[in-house]
C-alpha cells in the first residue's frame, strides 16, 4: 500500500497538536479516522511514529526524523500548487534577508530549501546578526526582509512586521529529573537548581527581566551561545534551562533524552517575526519568500508548540 498525502497530513497534524483528538478537531474528521490513518502509515513505514501517554502522544526519534521529511513534502506540494498560474518571468530576481542566530539554525534552513526548490532563479543573499543590528540594516535599506525572535512591541516604528508564530517557554530537564514528575513547573522551584543560560537573540535579556520580577535568580553554572551545548548539558543532568518551544528537540547529540514541562507562571512568549521597512515596496521575490514563510506558520499553527 503506497503512502498518501492524506496520511502525511494527518500525521503532521497529530505531531503539531500533540494528540489525536486535537488533530481530529483541526482536520474536522473523527478520531477513529485519524487513528486508522496513523495505523496504516506506521504499518507501511515499519516503525512506530509516536509513543502514547496519558496526555497525548510524543514523536519517537524516528518519528521526529520522518516529520521533517513530511513537512518538506507538504510544503513542496503547496508551493507547486501556487505556481500553476505564475509566469516564469516572475520567478527571477534577488533580495537580501537578515536572520538572527536562532532563526538561522532552527527556522531558515527549511524555508530556504523549499523556496530555492520552488524558485531556483531567485538569488537570496543572507546576513546573520543580532536584532539590534538587523533593525539598523532594515531601516537603512540594506535588507529587504528580516526574520527574528523578539517581542512585537519592541519593533522600530519604521518597520512593518507579521507574526510567524508565538513560542511559549518550557523548562528543560534531564530524563528522570525529580521535577519532571510535575505537570507544570513553577520557576520558583528552580531557585536551588543549577541553571544553563543561552546567550543568544533576545532570550537571555528576556529571562533576566523574568528573574528580576520574581526577585530571585538561579545560579548560572554555564552561559553559552550554543544551543547544542545547552541541550547536551541539560540531557546529561548538569543543569536545567528555560527556553522557547521553537528550539526544543527531545534528544541531545549524544542520544540522551531531554524532558520539557510547561512553566506555571505567565511569561512573555518569544514572537517569531518577519519584518521589512515601511514605505518600501517589496519586490516579487521577497514577497513570495514572505508568503512562504507565513504559510509555514499557518500550517504549523500560530503557536509554535506541539501540546
From TrEMBL:
Residues 3-60 form the HTH lysR-type domain. One of its GO terms (cellular component) is protein-DNA complex. GO terms for molecular function: DNA binding; DNA-binding transcription factor activity. PROSITE patterns: HTH_LYSR. It comes from Acetobacter vaccinii. This is LysR family transcriptional regulator. The keyword Transcription regulation applies. Keywords: DNA-binding, Transcription, Transcription regulation. SUPFAM superfamilies: Periplasmic binding protein-like II, Winged helix' DNA-binding domain. Belongs to the LysR transcriptional regulatory family. The keyword Transcription applies. InterPro entries: LysR_HTH_N, LysR_subst-bd, WH-like_DNA-bd_sf, WH_DNA-bd_sf. Pfam families: HTH_1, LysR_substrate. Signal peptide: none annotated.
Amino acid at each position: 500500500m503506497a503512502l498518501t498525502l492524506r496520511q502525511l497530513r494527518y500525521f503532521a497534524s497529530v505531531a503539531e497538536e500533540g494528540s489525536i483528538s486535537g488533530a481530529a478537531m483541526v482536520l474536522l474528521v473523527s478520531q477513529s479516522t485519524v487513528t486508522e490513518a496513523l495505523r496504516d502509515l506506521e504499518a507501511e513505514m515499519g516503525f512506530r511514529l509516536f509513543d502514547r501517554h496519558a496526555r497525548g502522544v510524543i514523536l519517537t526519534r524516528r518519528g521526529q526524523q520522518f516529520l521533517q521529511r513530511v513537512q518538506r513534502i507538504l510544503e513542496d506540494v503547496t508551493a507547486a500548487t501556487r505556481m500553476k498560474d505564475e509566469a516564469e518571468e516572475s520567478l527571477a530576481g534577488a533580495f537580501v534577508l537578515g536572520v538572527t542566530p536562532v532563526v538561522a539554525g532552527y527556522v531558515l534552513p527549511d524555508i530556504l530549501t523549499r523556496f530555492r526548490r520552488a524558485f531556483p532563479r531567485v538569488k537570496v543573499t543572507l546576513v546573520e546578526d543580532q536584532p539590534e543590528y538587523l533593525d539598523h540594516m532594515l531601516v537603512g535599506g540594506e535588507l529587504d526582509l528580516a526574520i527574528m525572535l523578539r517581542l512585537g512591541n519592541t519593533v522600530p516604528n519604521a518597520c512593518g512586521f507579521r507574526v510567524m508564530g508565538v513560542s511559549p517557554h518550557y523548562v528543560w530537564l534531564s530524563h528522570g529529573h525529580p521535577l519532571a514528575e510535575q505537570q507544570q513547573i513553577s520557576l520558583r522551584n528552580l531557585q536551588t537548581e543549577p541553571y544553563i543560560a543561552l546567550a543568544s537573540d533576545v532570550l537571555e535579556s528576556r529571562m533576566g527581566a523574568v528573574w528580576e520580577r520574581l526577585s530571585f535568580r538561579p545560579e548560572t553554572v554555564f552561559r553559552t551561545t550554543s544551543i547544542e551545548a545547552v541541550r547536551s548539558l541539560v540531557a546529561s543532568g548538569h543543569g536545567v534551562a528555560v527556553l522557547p518551544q521553537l528550539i526544543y528537540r527531545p534528544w541531545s547529540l549524544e542520544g540522551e533524552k531531554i524532558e520539557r514541562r510547561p512553566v506555571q507562571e505567565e511569561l512573555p512568549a518569544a514572537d517569531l517575526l518577519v519584518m521589512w521597512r515601511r514605505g518600501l515596496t517589496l519586490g516579487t521575490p521577497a514577497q513570495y519568500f514572505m508568503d512562504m514563510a507565513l504559510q509555514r506558520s499557518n500550517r504549523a499553527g500560530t503557536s509554535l508548540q506541539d501540546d
